[in-house]
From TrEMBL:
Name of this protein: Leucine-rich repeat-containing protein egg-6-like
Primary subcellular site in the record, as a coarse category: membrane
Protein encoded by which gene: LOC115225511
UniProt keyword list: Cell membrane, Disulfide bond, Ion channel, Ion transport, Leucine-rich repeat, Membrane, Repeat, Signal, Transmembrane, Transmembrane helix, Transport
InterPro entries: KCNMA1_auxiliary (IPR051432), Leu-rich_rpt (IPR001611), Leu-rich_rpt_typical-subtyp (IPR003591), LRR_dom_sf (IPR032675)
GO BP term, pick one: monoatomic ion transmembrane transport
Length: 252
């Protein structure tokens, strides 16, 4: 347990080392630990239970490692964790329930990985979640309801992926969403009703996609939007009434 001796009582800094594996119980008996930084290592595997019994941990950074998979129970029993950074790894898949037992999680960064698909239920049971960062992955499809039932979610970043189609209902029940970034994808079609019920959205970035047609009514319910970016697409026609009801728009 020499690794424990390196940790301070409240903050543990183990970044910029050559750690490959974290074994079960590596951080046991550290009830006062609030922040743990394991970024910039070579971590490939984290055993289930590695972060057990850290009741006061609020921040965990695993950025810039070599983690490929997040298994169910990976982050079990972290009741006060609010921030989780998993950016810049090699994660390919997020299993249903991967973030279970994180009842206070507010922000999760999964940008710069190799994620291909977001499954329905990937972010279930996270009632305080307000920001999800998924930019710079290889996401092709977002299953309908993947982000359902997150009324506190204000920011969702999905730019720089390979998304081609967004199904109606993908963003349902996100009444608090303010920013949605979908730039630099391969979106060709936006179904009518895709942005339904996003009445609080302030910024929507759809730039640099392959959109050729936008159906009338697509943006009808975005009454609070200020920034709508549609540059670098293949739009050939603007239908009459397409931007009606966007009375607060600043940038188009």
């Amino acid at each position: 347990m020499a690794i424990v001796k390196l940790l301070k009582k409240v903050h543990g800094y183990l970044s910029n080392n050559a750690i490959v594996k974290i074994e079960n119980g590596s951080f046991a008996n550290l009830p006062s630990l609030k922040y743990l930084d394991l970024s910039n290592n070579a971590i490939v595997k984290i055993e289930n239970g590695s972060f057990a019994n850290l009741p006061n941990l609020t921040g965990l950074s695993l950025s810039n490692n070599a983690i490929v998979k997040i298994e169910n129970g990976f982050f079990g029993n972290l009741p006060n964790l609010t921030g989780l950074d998993l950016s810049r790894n090699a994660i390919e898949k997020i299993e249903n329930g991967s973030f279970a037992n994180l009842p206070k999680l507010e922000q999760i960064d999964l940008s710069n990985n190799a994620i291909v698909k977001i499954e329905n239920g990937s972010f279930a049971n996270l009632p305080y979640l307000f920001e999800v960062l998924l930019s710079n992955n290889s996401i092709v499809k977002i299953e309908n309801g993947s982000f359902a039932n997150h009324p506190r979610l204000t920011g969702l970043k999905l730019g720089n992926n390979k998304i081609s189609t967004i199904e109606q209902g993908t963003f349902r029940n996100l009444s608090g969403l303010e920013y949605l970034f979908l730039q630099n994808n391969s979106i060709s079609t936006i179904e009518q009703g895709t942005f339904k019920n996003l009445s609080n959205i302030r910024g929507l970035n759809l730039g640099n996609n392959k959109i050729s047609t936008i159906e009338q009514g697509t943006f009808r319910n975005l009454s609070n939007i200020k920034y709508l970016l549609l540059s670098d697409n293949k739009i050939s026609k603007i239908e009459r009434g397409l931007f009606e009801n966007l009375t607060r728009i600043w940038t188009l």
